[in-house]
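Try this one yourself first.
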C-alpha cells in the first residue's frame, strides 16, 4: 500500500514492496512524490519478476536485500548481518541460484559449521541471517516457500528458554562487591564505568555514550539518550531515551571523576572531553576492550569468567528486587 503525506512542509512518499520492506522519499512537492511512487512501485515489481524469470543468484538477491534493509534496522544489526554473509554465506551460496537452494543443502551447510570450531551461537546467527534473506525472497515471489525455515530445532540451534536464562547469570551481592573493589585497585581509571553499570543497570553501549550533560549529580539522575553501537553513536536499544536514578555514592564518584578529568586536561592544556568514560585522549572507549578489561578484573578477583558487562545489568535488577524495590520501578530503570 502506498501513501503520500505532508510532514514539516515537505511531502513524503511511502510504500512497502512485496517483501514487506518500506521505501520512502522526502520530496519538495506533491507532484515529485507522485512521480517517485509511479516509478518506484513498478520497478520493485519488475525486479521480482526478473528474479523469477532469470534465476537470480543469492549474491544478486543479497545485494538488493542489504540495500533495502539498511535504513530500517540498527547499524549493529546490519553490520552483523553483513559480516555473517561475507564470511560464511557468500562463499557457500553466493553463486547458487536462489531457486536451487533446498533444505538438504542448507542443513548440510549448517551441520558442517556445527562440527567445525564455530560457536553454536554463531551458527544460530548464520541461520537467522539466511532465513531472513530467504523469507524476503518468498515475499518477493522468487521462492514459494522458505527452505531455511524450521531448521533450528532439527539442528538443536534453538536454545530452550530455561537454558537461555542460565546463560546470562547475575552476580551475588558478595561477588559484585568483590568485583568492584578489585576494579578500584587494579583499573582505577575504568572503575567508575563498572560502578555505573552495576549501580544503574545500563547497557554497556549506553554507558559508553554518556556525556557530562547527561549526568545530574545533585538530582542523582542520568539521562540515557544515546548508545554506542558498532563504534557509532546510535539511539538506545529501546528506541527512546529514559532517565535512571543513581545512588549518592555513585553520584559522588562521578562528580569526583569530572573534577579529576578537568584538572588533568587543564594541566595538559587540552579541552575536556564531553564523554564521561573515555580514553586518555578523550575519545570513545572500545566495547571489546572494556570486555577484555572486565575479564582481567574477574580473573584477578577469582570470579567466574563467564560474567560480562551485561551480567551487571541483570545483577542490578536482581539485587534491586531483593531489597524490596517494585518490579515497575526496576523496569523503568532498565
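Now uncover the answer:
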Amino acid at each position: 500500500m502506498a501513501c503520500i503525506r505532508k510532514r514539516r512542509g515537505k511531502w513524503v512518499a511511502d510504500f512497502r514492496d512485496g517483501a514487506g520492506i518500506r521505501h520512502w522519499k522526502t520530496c519538495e512537492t506533491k507532484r515529485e512524490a507522485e512521480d517517485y511512487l509511479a516509478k518506484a512501485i513498478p520497478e520493485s515489481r519488475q525486479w521480482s519478476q526478473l528474479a523469477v524469470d532469470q534465476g537470480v543468484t543469492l549474491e544478486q538477491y543479497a545485494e538488493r536485500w542489504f540495500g533495502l534493509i539498511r535504513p530500517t534496522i540498527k547499524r549493529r544489526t546490519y553490520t552483523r548481518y553483513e559480516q555473517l554473509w561475507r564470511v560464511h554465506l557468500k562463499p557457500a551460496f553466493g553463486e547458487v541460484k536462489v531457486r536451487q537452494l533446498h533444505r538438504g543443502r542448507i542443513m548440510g551447510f549448517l551441520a558442517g559449521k556445527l562440527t567445525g570450531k564455530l560457536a553454536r551461537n554463531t551458527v544460530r546467527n548464520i541461520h537467522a541471517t539466511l532465513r531472513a534473506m530467504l523469507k524476503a525472497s518468498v515475499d518477493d515471489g522468487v521462492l514459494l516457500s522458505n527452505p531455511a525455515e524450521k531448521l533450528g530445532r532439527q539442528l538443536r540451534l534453538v536454545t530452550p528458554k530455561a537454558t537461555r536464562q542460565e546463560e546470562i547469570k547475575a552476580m551475588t551481592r558478595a561477588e559484585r562487591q568483590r568485583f568492584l573493589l578489585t576494579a578500584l585497585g587494579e583499573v582505577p581509571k575504568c572503575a567508575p564505568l563498572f560502578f555505573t553499570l552495576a549501580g544503574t543497570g545500563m547497557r554497556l553501549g549506553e554507558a559508553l555514550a554518556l556525556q557530562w550533560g547527561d549526568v545530574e549529580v545533585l538530582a542523582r539522575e542520568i539521562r540515557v539518550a544515546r548508545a554506542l553501537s558498532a563504534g557509532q553513536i546510535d539511539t538506545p536499544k529501546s528506541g527512546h531515551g529514559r532517565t535512571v536514578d543513581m545512588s549518592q555514592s555513585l553520584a559522588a564518584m562521578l562528580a569526583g571523576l569530572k573534577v579529576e578529568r578537568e584538572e588533568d586536561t587543564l594541566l595538559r592544556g587540552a579541552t575536556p572531553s564531553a564523554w564521561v568514560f573515555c580514553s586518555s585522549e578523550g575519545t570513545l572507549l572500545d566495547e571489546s576492550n572494556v570486555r577484555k578489561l572486565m575479564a582481567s578484573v574477574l580473573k584477578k578477583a577469582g570470579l567466574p569468567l563467564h560474567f560480562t558487562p551485561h551480567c551487571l545489568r541483570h545483577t542490578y535488577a536482581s539485587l534491586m528486587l531483593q531489597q524490596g524495590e517494585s518490579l515497575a520501578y526496576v523496569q523503568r530503570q532498565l
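Discussion: Residues 2-54 form a domain with the GCC-box Binding Domain fold (CATH 3.30.730). The two ends are 36 Å apart (CA to CA).
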